[in-house]
């Protein structure tokens, strides 16, 4: 194995030990730190690593793993529901940006082929940086997250067509290509067989994921050998990436499809746990390799040109993204964040420039300048997002930020996250027993209303781990999660504060299944006990005495929860779950009738 590669991994791990804790204090601090570490060890400063592109190609596997994890969260029906945004929003962004950049390049004297090659490469955004940011901020389910992901997914697909266009664009340029070992020879089927193989691979991945992998995972789970599950998880990611690479497609696309095929599997949470550490480490290595690719000597020799191109590119993409976002009805706040998130150039630009230079579509000197522009724009993105948080976001939160005090550590044993209709009932019950409780909510108007009743509720986003630290989560023995969309939050709290017992609100049975899979201390559906109280009232109105109605309601709850514990592992198999549900209803009816009969005859 190459010594420079081992050295870069060693330095990366050293940086990770220092920078990951820092990232807990500053959302993108670790990304900025990795980029700085890459600059320091790269050719421009210490020169410890002389070939950053080789490291970059390996580190891009972190992006592949990230797309696999994203696919696990996105069922095919959700992807179909995104089709308008995927084609409309993603297609508009790429098309308009490519045409605008190509037009500017032709005005600057570039040939038509070179101008469009440059436009294609610079129209793409960084999947690694953008998705890492969206995941960290838990925005994947929000409008800016869904729209950003739609654009990024479209870019990952269209990059295949862009690479295929390079030989055609090369015929429109007056210069020759440069020999290169990277991508110089096809390694898969060609011609009509390429189409047949592509269809076969996609169908095979779908059928294999649906009918082969789930039984395989079931067998592995029964063996209780954790290492085997981890090995199979990695094998799945690597295998799907290799299949796409064999077809000449994006490896990240293959991993995404593999994840999406398994999105309905009951083992997807275990897959996430096994892949997540590898993804995090490889993404860190990816950001270091981006920092290493920055040629500071070239930037110093042409600072006005490079900085001007970076600012111009990011400003142009920001304006286009703002316009596209407005076309598709994004509100101003998510539109601004969406535009700031995607205004950089992306890692696939390096790949396109390599192919373009090889085919003769772009001159080597042009590729050298624009590679520096790509790397510098990616390095600036975390800083731009930090500026967005410090300067733009507060303008939208002025009213809310002044409606409640920020959390402080009161050293209370219980923290309640979300003090709405459910959190208030829990809080009042604890207050009646003299149990001190820290209350957190993010609705400023609601907090002002509660002040009238002498409730001290802290203002803040309960999903922010730093805010929970300030609120004293480290000292709390119980954390009540009373906000609705809480599965990701539960995972983070369990990782950060494993000592705390989690009492969690569930929206319904599927959500309860997910929370049980996370092994929370207790979870309950938000409507079940209220519905049982109403059902108990109906029984009494029908002539059942109060004591029997109370017994029936209590036994119904106990038997229903036993059924949930017995069947939650089937949550990914709707057929088996429906069959089991039918049996459970019959057993419930039989059990309640028998117990009521025994009670009336004095045997119970």
Provide an overview of this structure.
With 604 residues, this protein is mainly α. Helix content is 70%, strand content 4%. The protein has 27 helices and six strands. Helix 23 (487-496) links the parallel strand 4 (478-481) and strand 5.
SSE map:
Layout: H1 3-23, H2 29-41, H3 52-59, H4 61-72, H5 76-81, H6 83-107, H7 112-123, H8 127-136, H9 143-170, H10 192-223, H11 226-247, H12 251-261, H13 268-292, H14 296-301, H15 303-327, H16 332-342, H17 348-359, H18 364-396, H19 398-401, E1 414-417, H20 421-432, E2 437-441, H21 444-451, E3 457-459, H22 465-470, E4 478-481, H23 487-496, E5 501-506, H24 509-517, E6 522-525, H25 528-541, H26 546-567, H27 574-600
Parallel strand pairs: 1-2, 1-4, 2-3, 4-5, 5-6
Helix pairs in contact: 1-2, 1-13, 2-13, 3-13, 4-12, 4-13, 6-7, 6-9, 6-15, 7-9, 7-17, 8-9, 9-16, 9-17, 10-11, 11-12, 11-13, 15-16, 15-18, 16-18, 17-18, 25-26, 26-27
Total beta strand runs: 6
What count of domains describes the coordinates? 3
Q: Strand-residue fraction?
A: under 5%
Structural class: mainly alpha
**Helix-residue proportion:** over 70%
Looking at CATH, which topology of the largest domain would you report?
Na+/H+ antiporter like fold
Helices, by number, come to 27
Instruction: Specify the biggest β-sheet.
Output: 6 strands, parallel
The gross shape turns out to be: globular
List the uncertain runs. Answer: 23-29, 179-186, 398-402
Organism: Algimonas ampicilliniresistens
Membrane topology: Multi-pass membrane protein
InterPro entries: Cation/H_exchanger_TM (IPR006153), K/H_exchanger (IPR004771), K_uptake_TrkA (IPR006036), Na+/solute_symporter_sf (IPR038770), NAD(P)-bd_dom_sf (IPR036291), RCK_N (IPR003148)
Family: Belongs to the monovalent cation:proton antiporter 2 (CPA2) transporter (TC 2.A.37) family.
